[in-house]
Every structure is written in C-alpha cells, then in structure tokens.
Specification:
This is Flp pilus assembly protein, pilin Flp. Keywords: Membrane, Transmembrane, Transmembrane helix. By secondary structure, the protein is mainly α. The protein is built from two helices and no strands.
C-alpha cells in the first residue's frame, strides 16, 4: 500500500495534462478579457459604418 502511494505521489504522467489545461485556460481568459475590452468600441464603430453605408447606398 505504501509503495502504491509513493508511486502515485512521484508519478508525473498527468502533470503535462494539467499544464496544458492551465495554459489553455489562460489563453481563453486573455481572449475574453481582450474581447470585453474592445467590444464597446467595435460595436460603436460598426454601427457608424452601417449608418454611413445605408446613407450612401440605401437600406435595400
């Protein structure tokens, strides 16, 4: 039993998976942070672009 516990403690098989999960979570979090930061500006800019295109070419 003690040998099994010692082997489990020193095993590194799942460590790489945990590293990749942490890295992936960091990348997703950073992407969401950036998206949240630029969302308001992008929506405003696209609204202005849409309005200018409608004014120039009409709505249909």
């Amino acid at each position: 039993m003690r040998k099994s516990i010692t082997h489990f403690i020193y095993a590194e098989n799942g460590a790489v998976t945990v590293d990749w999960v942490v890295i992936a979570a960091a990348v997703v979090s950073l992407g969401l942070l950036i998206l949240g930061t630029i969302h308001g500006s992008a929506v405003g800019m696209l609204d202005e672009l849409g309005a200018s295109l409608i004014a120039k070419y009409g709505s249909g």
